[in-house]
Write a structure and sequence with these properties.
alpha+beta; Enolase-like, domain 1; about 40% helix
């Protein structure tokens, strides 16, 4: 091993498995990275609360990131929006028309509280949502204006954001005609 980075990468997964905090491989790797870095370099990195995408590679896949709708409704007035794979171009092309994307949005702040997806590539669609939210794109109208490649499964996320933004009467510009 030639550097500290080698130690971090090799020790990351097993070290994170013992925390018991969140039982997902991605979180074990993240926690292990924090543990290994702190062991080698001193207490530099904290374990943080953050958005954690989770899902399963079943048929169909399912995934989510954020609060459950039930949990969101406990402390927020919410608006929900749903788009279906049967109207998504990639789903139609691939013959994968079973599934949906659902966003739960805070009515007052217009922030996305949760994204649920069931269908082909659900874990990848939720990963797009998680990356957008982590990067600070929390308002549903900001996500509705985001560009994604066409035709991809990620398009269903944007279509759902457009639906939610319409329900909230938010100006999203040129995509106001979008109906998928």
């Amino acid at each position: 091993m030639s550097s500290t980075a080698d130690v971090v990468v090799i020790g990351a997964g097993p070290a994170g498995d013992v925390t018991g905090r969140v039982m997902l491989a991605s979180e074990a790797i993240r926690d292990g990275y924090v543990a290994a870095t702190n062991a080698v370099r001193g207490s530099l990195l904290p374990v943080t609360d953050h958005l954690i995408p989770a899902g399963s590679f079943t048929d169909p896949e399912y995934a989510s990131v954020g609060l459950t709708e039930k949990k969101a409704r406990e402390t927020h007035n919410v608006v929900t929006a749903v788009s279906y794979y049967s109207a998504a171009v990639r789903g139609i092309i691939d013959g994968q028309s079973t599934g949906f994307c659902k966003l739960i949005v805070d009515e007052a702040t217009t922030e996305i509280l949760d994204c649920h997806v069931v269908g082909e590539q659900a874990t990848n669609v939720v990963q797009v949502a998680a990356m957008a939210l982590t990067a600070g794109m929390r308002r549903v109208d900001d996500l509705a204006r985001a560009a994604v490649s066409f035709p991809t499964y990620a398009e269903i996320l944007i279509a759902t954001a457009v639906r939610a933004a319409k329900k909230l009467n938010l100006d999203i510009g040129w995509r106001t005609h979008y109906t998928a």
